[in-house]
Design brief:
alpha/beta; five-stranded parallel sheet; three-stranded antiparallel sheet; 43% helix; single chain
């Protein structure tokens, strides 16, 4: 299916020493190519109730074994209530791919599920502004970034249909490393500042963020139509990157835009910004929050960060609190 929606994880894979940057961890995928507790067969129909999560590297849970990811933690709790949880998230996805993969899973593969939760990442906006688009035959195409030591993976993904964990480390380097764009004829590249700062820097928002939000909104509209057609309950969620925490970006464009979209679409909205950001926090307090919840030198959550997302999702799911500006403190 990855020739349809650009890239995917290998199916029925098990790797004991996968690497994300300097982190080594075990990973397994099921028969759908979803990150899971172990290699296992997934029936197209659920025995009872089934929830599918989709997102990018945060939802996949790079650098963290399945049981430590927020989807894995949610799954371990909800399976006690006969609710099956599946994780369709993959590194470097965006709403363009979310929609096309979901359409494939529902209408071509015939996967049945009751609820969908879409975790919209800060980087999705740059991806949908620059890197992904639908071709004429409704498959997802991606930008073929010029070859250099920093940019090898992006062109690799464009040419290949399966992402393997052997190359995930290169993606980390691609996103996290400074980019030298000299001599590349103004070809758009993975610019980390642009990728993370469009909610804060007005110039970046005008240059890329506005277009990215429009494109992402288009595909969320398509997802809403798709889930309505299949009578699937839809929830969307947003969360900050380190940069939003550093700048106390609590009342963020990312929050307000998707909160308004959810209201218009009449879908549930989960806001995790208050879990990581307090408006009056000092720089030292923000640094402490980042150190506690994120890998050192990396944009992604460690297991503590995943635990915050899991605990607050479960609380919202069970209706134990409803204020989207509140957050359960997790020690």
């Amino acid at each position: 299916g990855s020739d349809i929606y650009h890239h995917d994880l290998a199916k029925r894979a098990s790797v004991d020493n996968a690497r994300w940057g300097g982190i080594e961890y075990a990973i397994a995928t099921d028969s759908l190519g979803f990150k899971n507790r172990e290699v296992k067969e997934i029936s197209l129909t659920a025995v009872d109730k089934r929830i599918v999560f989709i997102g990018d590297s945060f939802t996949e849970g790079v650098g963290v074994e399945y049981q430590g990811t927020f989807v894995g933690k949610i799954a371990s709790q909800l399976e006690k209530e006969n609710i099956e949880v599946l994780n369709a998230g993959v590194v470097s996805y965006s709403p363009t791919i979310y929609w096309r993969k979901l359409k494939y899973l529902l209408e071509d593969l015939g996967l049945k599920f009751d609820e969908l939760v879409v975790y919209i990442d800060i980087s999705d906006i740059q991806d949908d502004a620059i890197y992904y688009w639908l071709s004429e035959n409704e498959t997802v195409a991606g930008l073929n970034v010029p070859q250099s030591s920093e940019h090898t993976l992006k062109s690799f993904i464009t040419r290949h249909t399966i992402l393997t964990y052997i190359v995930l480390n290169f993606l980390h380097n691609l996103i996290a490393s400074p980019i030298d764009d000299s001599g590349l004829d103004d070809q758009p590249l993975y610019d980390h500042y642009q990728r993370s700062m469009w909610t804060i820097d007005e110039a970046v928002f005008e240059e890329m963020g506005k277009k990215g939000l429009e494109n992402s909104e288009h595909f969320l509209d398509l997802i809403a139509t798709l889930t309505n057609t299949h009578e699937i309950k839809l929830t969307i969620a947003v969360y900050p990157w380190r940069e939003q925490i550093e700048h106390n970006d609590l009342d963020s464009i990312q929050v307000n835009f998707w909160k308004e979209w959810a209201k218009k679409a009449d879908v549930a909205f989960l806001n995790y910004f208050p879990c990581f950001i307090k408006q009056d926090n000092s720089r030292a307090e923000n640094s402490s929050t980042i150190d506690k919840h994120f890998f050192v030198g990396d944009a992604h959550w460690n297991e503590t960060g995943h635990n915050v997302i899991a605990r607050n999702f479960l609380s919202s799911y069970r209706n134990t609190h409803s204020d989207d500006n509140a957050c359960i403190e997790v020690n």
